[in-house]
């Protein structure tokens, strides 16, 4: 099973950025642990700070992945173009957030991409990714 973790803007700074909200761990340090936890999954990772690059990536891998775990960062709250790209591809996309966006500023309460996604996992720190992968494994072949 091939899954992609797709990261949007500023998520390259995890571990450095607002550690009170996002923790002190770099995602690059967590990724090997995640891969070890799911040896049956071919787990790929891609990050970009640019909306168009994220759209290109969705177009490129949208027919090849069995699932995409997408943390779109702040584009979550603004990007109709990303919602359209998610709707355009057959791969199921799961919306992921590290922080509990519902407990933060009102502008973060709305997701532009949620309606195009199969669901969302929010506020569980890096465990949001672990649970997301588990979801795709449990539902393998059912979509
Ligand atoms: C985030 C939440 C967004 O509101 C924010 O802009 C991010 C990270 C999260 O993972 O908690 O960049 O997606």
How many domains make up the 3D coordinates?
1
Query: What is the radius of gyration computed over CA atoms, rounded to a whole number of angstroms?
Result: 14 Å
**Would you report the number of β strands?**
5
Bound molecules: 1,3,4-trihydroxy-5-OXO-cyclohexanecarboxylic acid
In spatial order, strands of the major sheet run 2-1-3-4-5
CATH topology-level fold name: Rossmann fold
SS content category:
alpha/beta
**H/E topology pattern:** EHHEHEHEEH
SS strand fraction: 15-25%
- Choose one word for the global shape: globular
CATH superfamily: Dehydroquinase, class II
In short:
The protein has helices at residues 19-22, 27-37, 51-61, 80-88, 127-138; strands spanning 2-7, 42-47, 67-71, 93-97, 119-122. It is an alpha/beta fold and 143 residues long.
Describe the structure.
It contains 5 helices and 5 strands, in the order βααβαβαββα. The protein is α/β, with parallel strands linked by helices and 143 residues long. The protein has one domain (2-98, 117-138): Rossmann fold (3-Layer(aba) Sandwich), CATH 3.40.50. The protein has a 5-stranded parallel beta sheet with strand order 2-1-3-4-5, covered by helices on one side. The protein starts with a strand and ends in a 5-residue tail after the last helix. The relative contact order is 0.20. The mean pLDDT is 97. 1,3,4-trihydroxy-5-OXO-cyclohexanecarboxylic acid is lined by residues 10, 71, 73-74, 76, 97-99, 101, 108.
